[in-house]
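Box 3.1. Reading complex inputs
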Amino acid sequence: MRTAVKLGARVALLLVPALSAAEAPTAQSVLQCMRANVPQTLQVKQVELSAVDGNGGSRQLRGRLYARRENELLQAMMRIESPADMNGAAYLLRQKDGAVRDEMYVYLPSLAKVRRINGAAMDGSLWGTDITYGDLRQITGAFAGSDARLEGSETLNQRSVYVLSVNPPAANDGSQIQQLRAWVDAKTCVALRVDFSDGKMVRRRLEVAPAELRQDGRFWYAGNAVMRDLQAGSQTQLKVLGVSADQDLLGRYFNPASFFVGG
Amino acid sequence: MQALVNWIAGRPWTVVLLNLLLGLAAAWVVVDPQHASLRVRIDPSIESLLPPDSPERAIDQRVRRAFGESETIIVAVQPQAIFTPEGMALAQRLTQRYQQLPEVTGVLSLATAPNMVSHEDELDVRSFTQQAQDDPALVAGFAEAIAAHPLYRNTLVSSDGRKLAFALLVPALSEQRFLELGFDRLLREATREVAGDVPVYITGTVVGRAATARALLDALKFTVPAVFVIVLALLLLAFRNLRATLAAALTVALTLLWTAATAVLLKVPVNLVTAIVPALVLTLALSFTIYLLAAHFDAQSHPRLGDRGTRTRWVLNRAGLGLTLSAGTTAASFLALTLNDLPAIRHFAVLASLGSAYGVWLSLSFLPSLLALLNCGRPSRPPPASLWFERLGDALARFDQKWRTAIIAVALIAIPVNSIFASRVQAGAEFSRSFAKSSEVRRDFETINRDFDGANLLSILIETHVNDALTDPASVRRIDELQNWLRAQPEVGAVVSYVDHLKLINRAFGDASEDAARIPDTAAAIKQLLVFGGSDAIRHLIDPRFRSALITLRVKVDSSAEIEALVARIDQRLAAMPQPLDGVVSGSPLVASRMVRQIASGQFESIALATVLIWMLLALMFTSARAGLVALLPTVVPVAIYFGTLGLLDIPLSPTTALVACIVIGIAVDDTIQFMARFNLDARARGDEAPAVGSALRAILRPVTLSTVALCSGFLVFAGSSLNSQVQFGLLSAFTLFLAWVMNITLTPALSSKLRIVTWWDILRLDLGEAPQLTIPLLAGLSLRQARVFALMSKLEKYPAGALVIREGDVARDIYVVVDGQLEAWVQRQGEHRRLSTMGRGAVMGEAGYFGQRRTANVQALSAVRVLRFDHEDLERLRERYPRIAALVLRNLNRAQAERLARATAMLE
């Protein structure tokens, strides 16, 4: 269910005002630079999500992702276009402030029904992929609200990166992720690698090859990212095939009563 | 061979130092000085006992790759109350605490399992504890909801509603790590921290493996020192010589060290099977040293063996044949196990046979050299009970010869009778029952198995090889029917697949009025529900392409036989499924069961090969197929009785009991060899087999009994293991070796009393001078080996100068052939000494006696002479055993007679 949101998050990694070279970077300045890559409104067309299991078997979903930030809170909707038997299935996520649980809605065309999902776990898999809702929210929100620390700078894949460590806010939803470490590209402010750790071990790892960094206007994003489940040996690839940002979207895409209507 | 004996006897310092240096090198290999630990690897897993390319392992690995590691630990906690807000809060706190434990990647419990409830357009997927936290009034309905829930019934809460279950996901937790962490202790402490002193039960595959590993380590820590104590005590008791005892103990220790180094170099882990090797090698080495020490102290009673080198040479010649043959037969019987498909059994075979060979080598090189250097003299008084043993030996010899026919008949009847019982022996193992009833691991397993409808997990891998095939409603219904069939099987406690999840999601997404969970009517609906509505659990039950799925079963049975029977029925049911559905069963219990079956299938081939190999060795050594068979019979009988006992007492062939037969074959035959070798010496020296039975029994009864006591004590040490399989192994091995001892003091002498043995050792050592077949006319046409065989079937006698070999007028039927020296034939006529002839090498004399006449002349040695003496019985025996040699000898004898007749005729003319 949360995959769409994830995609949104991936897309959110697009923006890129680089850090001012004159100032010594801090955790907050790196976070700000990352957030600047996320536009207030955006539209993503043709995203592709491929989940590959340990035996190499894969499932691919393609669709359109609509996402925007409203009052700094994420709203994302994804409508599936292929495979054909999934066409029209839609998913809406509306992030809520504070302790209020996020709203999630699913529409299944074969049943012609919308259901609001209440109480889904943060560690739950998005549509059987290796990405969880918790991962997505962190990435999309550029680690917002977390206790960020800048651990230093180093070189990753021949790029200068800042190593940012974040302790997610105390989970009230069963998430086991206790720490995120992000290797943030100094030039684009896109995370080239994020380790999701439960405090004992790294459970999942997100990686972006520098060659996959894309720019759309002033925003940088990862055109292709891979999330690996280091325990299960599976992985999910997220491709963003096209992005257009700063475009007003109709409110109906994010309205629970109408998000599933085609168009 | 003799050159080697001479070399060892002549260089005691060199031999001792070389062996000690090798011992130091072995210690360097075995001990890791950096971590002050042993480099020997412990691997108690059952899967690793199987060949890496076995189909069971391949399927298991495929399942793990496709659906993730399923390693879980089940913790059952029995709080005062469960279905209260406090009980729910406790479940929540325990879950959170368990999640903090190292290696735990997730916990399935009331705090994490979604209690899917549909209210109008809202689907509530909060966990039970979240719902209880938000609305405590809901708790009252949880017991009923869980009892009615197809996924959670008897899973999250026990069938009696008194125990909470927590399934801890621990995909990377190996048994070694489990033991390092003391994971069971951590779990109990964490539980106590949160819930106080409540009953806690822990089980799971890794728990069982860790317990097995711990038991193996404990067994090693216990058996090795215990056997060593037995070594010292027995040696001291038997020989009353501290220096000799310490020398023998050092020999045994070196044997173990070399074997351990071999295990490290060959990367052989200590597992359920190879864990037996250390104690076995120690025990075998002890028995070898006993034989050597017996020969050593025997040498002390021969004052003419004056100097150190001569004594060592004598000891090696006395014990060499028996011990070398022992090494050969023991190694052959162990190596026969290499036929088995299981790597663990093959590892055992290689290590045990090498250990046996090391033991013999050290007993024949290091020990006698060290004894010589330590100048271990003769004990001040005869060894304890030696007189008693001699008397018993005499009595047994009389008994065995008197009741020879009856003893042989009983032995021969025992084989088919026990074979009938043996035909009832089944391969099998009960895994939890490997542990004592009082053990925590078994108690916890049995409690969880009983209260949660099974604690063993099997899986059925459903494959279609067509994408999206498993979203076809017809296929889904077939799988649902299969699950219903599975649930009807008495061994099965619970069955779960993606179909159960699908039905629940469908109900949740459907109209609130629909009560029953059902399968959607279209493939699109099924796919959409699985993709959008599915929880994480579905990922572990169906692949992303919807072409393969996993059905998980909790089974209540634990014995391999019951699991095999269930799997056979499931296989039959799977075969009846329509295309494109193919199914195959997998899981650790099945892997273990298949392993047991493989052991059994290789068992009889191994025994047959061991028997044939040992027979060939014996036949070669005794230069006769018949003698080989005779020597084998006393070993075959106890093995037959062993299998008969298994059948009679319904003891299954398990990974450890399957080893007993080959071990016993290899060891028991050693005592037979010891008797026959000694009997051969004595019979040859006395020129008569009957008294040799008594003298041989007198000589070997003590060492053979001591060796049997040592071996039985060594095996009985396993009775102290916490693993029942090792206890069974120890008791059965000791019992069978005791039977073998009984056979070797009754059947072996009875069989041997009319047997003339010619050993290779004799043939190699026998000196008949240069080219006897060319220089002794009676041996013309024979090969050197045949000439020596003839000599050994005859009697090689020595006479000093002046000795009268043949007396005129005596009635005797022996013929003599001069091997070396000069003799004179003479008669006394009218008080005058008349020389008839002088005879040298090759001359034949005494033929008149052979043909029934009195001796016609005296024959006296002019110098020290050696002669071969044989009579009609010897020739008859030769004709039966070696007809070609007999034919040539008789031809030569006729030729000699004819020449003599021609000469006599010429003299008359």
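In summary: Chain B has a mean pLDDT of 84.
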